[in-house]
Design a protein that fits this description.
Residues 528-723 form the Peptidase S9 prolyl oligopeptidase catalytic domain. The protein has 723 residues and is mainly beta. Among the domains are: 320-460, 6 Propeller (Neuraminidase), CATH 2.120.10; 468-722, Alpha/Beta hydrolase fold, catalytic domain (Rossmann fold). It is built from 11 helices and 46 strands. An 8-stranded mixed beta sheet has the order 39-40-42-41-43-44-45-46, sandwiched between helices. Strands 1-4-5-6-7 form a 5-stranded antiparallel beta sheet, with no helix packed on it. Helix 6 crosses helix 7 (594-605). The longest helix has 16 residues, at 707-722.
């Protein structure tokens, strides 16, 4: 890892004032920032491993600075850059250092495109001579320094350009880019959303070649959304969106040689209907690694391409009966041997392969999951990672020798620990939380985990919360359908086991997800405290299909999304309803996105168990969702029609007996409003009464202005009235 970046949640209380005891929490307090999780600015480690950078903003002066701090002391040492000293711009929104740290890309006027993508105006700052150069008058995407920082490559209007910093000369690498037709150097919508990457080009180590992907979207069906806005006439957003079973973009790989200013297509092999989810240059400047994945996503080739002759060779193949997860964990060592993570033994673990793709050894093993791979330190020959070795609801940080020996636990407290390492792996910042502890941030030695200094705790937040006398979030397990499932529960603070309480269940349940963890309150947990004050019990159960309990547990739902997960939620509700203190006739369930799909199914298939359900932005039929996500778990509708239809809520509307609230954002580019509209029509034709709400122009997150406050007020009132 070249740079170490973190975005950590500091739960900083705005005041430590003690209020009268038993103060009741309100929705306004939840959404006006009373319990806001403030964010520490993104930290970036300098190469020396002893210092890090922080982006600071002076809102009064309207200036931005990049300041240098000491890991060991936390003290500010100097400013690398302050916009106050720049005449061309008043401030900037983000920055990226060149590999040799002598230049900085500054981003301004940023605008979001989709979930991960954005465009903006960028400037190049020379650290030594303190000059500022505008990269382009156009808003561009994904500008990236060459390794020697002499050039910047970027994408504008679906074409790749390079900019020579010393001469100011711009070179257009591709010329065929066109909206909704050809994309060069950045990904299409479905790759961005489901493979979670945008920049589809990469510099080799010497800056002589650019590898890039080209997407031909010509045959991909278009999707359109009406955006109502403030004008007299609505506008229309049109983009390519391949739904399950439909045509994907045709993706191809090219190598561009800068000296010759020529691109050549790389023939990867005899593949049909495939994905290229990752490209990455190895330590050898002539060898590019390419991951090629079949459409079913259960057969992956790691290919090495020789830039001298564009010859491609498969060096490793991995298959799975269900699917293979794509990660950013591939790490090349100096001799081009590489580190890889895989579930091939039934649990996610770390493996070492030689430069020819032959397995050298399995680095980690056991009936637990590696949940984050942090990197490899070539000096100590240690790999750093996070795992569930101390329970699936917990996380700890470890180091281990690359030969699989001398494993060391670097964190001590039971709960959720995560780390961010300095560039040379001298230190790591540990963020720790548990059900009883808001985030604590501490600096540790990466050698042995020894505490160096405390950075921040949140005693002020706990002091503030004392006025509200919040109920605890209790973690237990519940045996359902032969499995011990993780469960969390919040009960009214004046809970009396001789009384009966209505139960509201929350779940997400998507493949590999986790909703039950040993961590402190999130925003929904504060909402649950409000509901608990009103006399409700709130429970969350992670059923089959969720993550961190092995591949078999996670992948049991393959080809049957919504079957086993729903069975587990219904059975859990029935088992909880049998407890003396829960009213079995007043059990509700709610969820968002995949969770909305689940809550809709639950009130239909479990109509004798659930009396109420709320579905926010739900998938109503997997036929309406995108290829990459859906087919990973379901194959195509043509191959698996029963799997799609038997578990889709839209095909079970006649079973509705309870109270049902359906909510969606009108500008949702991810789970389209089409889902809710089709569900509405099906319910109407079945003459089923229900409640529904559309938030105009809002995306999948349904936020902005007072939107979240309005949404949660609506859901709260619905719960209080119907449950």
């Amino acid at each position: 890892m070249k740079f170490s970046k973190i975005l950590v949640g500091l739960l900083i209380a705005a005041t430590s004032t003690i209020y009268a005891q038993d103060k009741e929490i309100s929705l306004e307090e939840i959404y006006d920032g009373t319990f806001r999780q403030e964010r520490l600015q993104s930290l970036q480690s300098l190469d020396n491993g002893k210092e890090y950078l922080v982006l600071n903003r002076d809102r009064d002066a309207n200036t931005t600075s990049i300041d240098v701090y000491s890991y060991k002391t936390g003290e500010k040492l100097r400013s690398l850059l302050n916009s106050e000293d720049l005449s061309e711009i008043s401030g900037f929104q983000g920055f990226e250092l060149s590999e040799n740290e002598d230049k900085i890309l500054l981003s301004t006027e940023m605008e979001q495109i989709y979930r991960h993508s954005s465009r903006g105006i960028y400037y190049i700052y020379d650290v030594e001579d303190k000059t500022l150069t505008k990269l382009s008058d156009n808003k561009v995407q994904e500008p990236t320094f060459s390794p020697d920082a002499s050039k910047v490559a970027y994408v504008f209007e679906n074409n790749i350009y390079t900019y020579d910093i010393p001469t100011g000369e711009e070179t257009q690498v591709t010329i065929d880019g066109e909206k909704n037709t050809i994309i060069n150097g950045v990904t299409d919508w479905v790759y961005e959303e489901e493979f979670a990457f945008v920049r589809a080009f990469d510099w080799n180590k010497t800056g002589t070649h650019l590898a890039y992907l080209k997407f031909d979207e010509t045959e991909v069906p278009e999707f359109s959304m009406d955006m109502f806005g403030q004008d007299l006439y609505p506008s229309q957003q049109v983009f390519k969106y391949p739904k399950a079973g439909e045509i994907n973009s045709e993706v191809s790989l090219y190598l561009y040689e800068l000296a010759a200013e020529e691109s050549e297509k790389v023939e990867l092999g005899d593949y049909e209907d495939f994905y290229i989810p990752r490209i990455k240059w190895t330590q050898d400047p002539e060898i590019l690694s390419v991951q090629v994945l079949n459409r079913h996503q259960n057969d992956l080739d790691l290919i090495f391409v020789d830039a001298e002759d564009n010859e491609a060779e498969v060096v490793m193949n991995e298959t799975d009966e269900a699917y293979i997860d794509i990660t950013n964990n591939l790490t090349f060592l100096e001799n081009n041997s590489f580190i890889w993570t895989s579930e091939k033994d039934g649990w996610n673990h770390i493996y070492l392969y030689d430069e020819d793709g032959e397995l050298e050894n399995q680095v980690t093993e056991g009936n637990w999951e590696v949940t984050s791979y942090y990197g490899y330190d070539k000096d100590s020959k240690k790999i750093f990672y996070q795992s569930t070795e101390n329970g699936s609801v917990n996380r700890d940080v470890y180091s281990i020798k690359i030969n699989g020996k001398n494993k060391t636990r670097l964190t001590e407290k039971e709960g959720t620990n995560s780390a961010d390492f300095s560039a040379d792996y001298t230190y790591f910042i540990n963020s720790y939380t548990s059900t009883e502890t808001p985030y604590e941030f501490t600096l540790h030695s990466a050698k042995n985990g020894k505490l160096v200094r405390k950075i921040k705790d949140n005693s002020a937040l706990l002091e503030k919360e004392a006025a509200y006398n919040f109920a605890s979030k209790d973690l237990t397990t519940i045996n359902i359908n032969g499995n011990e499932l993780n469960m969390s529960m919040i009960k009214p603070n004046d809970f009396d086991e001789t009384k009966e309480y209505p139960l509201l269940m929350f779940q997400y349940s998507g493949p590999g997800s986790q909703s039950v963890s040993n961590s402190y309150f999130g925003t929904n947990d504060y909402w649950y405290q409000l509901l608990a004050n009103e006399g409700y019990i709130i429970a969350t159960v992670d059923g089959r299909g969720t993550g961190f309990k092995g591949a078999d547990f996670k992948k049991v739902t393959q080809n049957e999304l919504g079957k086993y997960e729903v069975e587990d939620q219904i059975a859990a509700a029935q088992k909880l309803g049998a407890r003396d203190y829960i009213d079995e006739n007043r059990i509700g369930i709610w969820g968002w996105s995949y969770g909305g799909f689940m809550s809709s199914n639950a009130i239909l298939k479990g109509n004798d168990t659930f009396s109420m359900a709320i579905a926010v932005a739900p998938v109503i039929s997997w036929r309406f969702y995108d290829t990459i996500y859906t087919e990973r778990y379901m194959t195509t509708p043509q191959e698996n029609p029963s799997g799609y239809d038997e578990n889709s809520p839209i095909n079970h509307v006649e079973k509705l007996k309870g109270d049902y609230l359906l909510i969606h954002g009108g500008g949702d580019d991810n789970v389209h409003l089409q889902n809710t509209m089709r569900m509405v029509e099906a319910l109407v034709q079945a003459n089923k009464q229900f409640d529904w709400a559309i938030y105009p122009d809002r995306n999948h997150g349904i936020y902005g202005g007072n939107t979240r406050l309005h949404l949660y007020t609506m859901m709260t009132e619905f719960i209080k009235e119907k449950l």
